[in-house]
Amino acid sequence: MGERFDNVFVTPQGYKAFLATGTWPDKTMFIMEVRWSASKGSINKVGHYQEGLVGMEAHVKDESRFPGKWEFFGFSSTAQTGKPQGAKSSCQTCHATNGAVDNTFVQFYPTLLPVAKAKGTLKPGVVN
Ligand code: HEC
After folding, report:
1. 103: closest CA among 64, 128, 66?
2. Of ligand 1's atoms, which has the minimum distance to the CA of residue 59?
3. Phi, psi of 94 (to 5 degrees)
4. What is the residue with the minimal CA distance to atom 34 of ligand 1?
5. What is the pLDDT of residue 1?
6. What is the CATH number assigned to the segment(s) 4-119?
7. Model pTM greater than 0.85?
8. How many C-beta atoms surround the C-beta of residue 113 within 10 A?
């Protein structure tokens, strides 16, 4: 088992609203793509680069559909549809406890962290 890379994608409307407000509007959807990493291939001698897909995860904000506003979906590397993980899932617990802004890990998104700081939307205590 090697190290992995995570690529996080978000709906453009959600991203634009975050830049303006420092938080996520209703109907924001994230996809996180998890990939294997490799090193010492072709001309890349010291860095790490991405390889095959490990899996995908989704995080969706739909205030009228989900009691906790957000729901998580997990996908295997070949699945076309994801399974809702439920309000008591480990996904909900970890994100709600440790996510810096509205159940999301903005502390690890370096282009968005300064926005949340400027707008005052960071959860106290999760970012040094
Ligand atoms: C132990 C804590 C933990 C658990 C449990 C967890 N995550 Fe996460 N998740 C993270 C962290 C940390 C990130 C930030 C991205 C990174 O570090 O790669 C993240 C990011 C994400 C993102 C990107 C959007 C966001 O909310 O920041 C999605 C989508 C996601 N996780 C889905 C899931 C799903 C689905 C599950 C359950 C099957 C899950 N996560 C369980 C810690 C967790």
Report:
1. 66
2. 29
3. -65, -45
4. 91
5. 52
6. 3.50.70.20
7. yes
8. 16
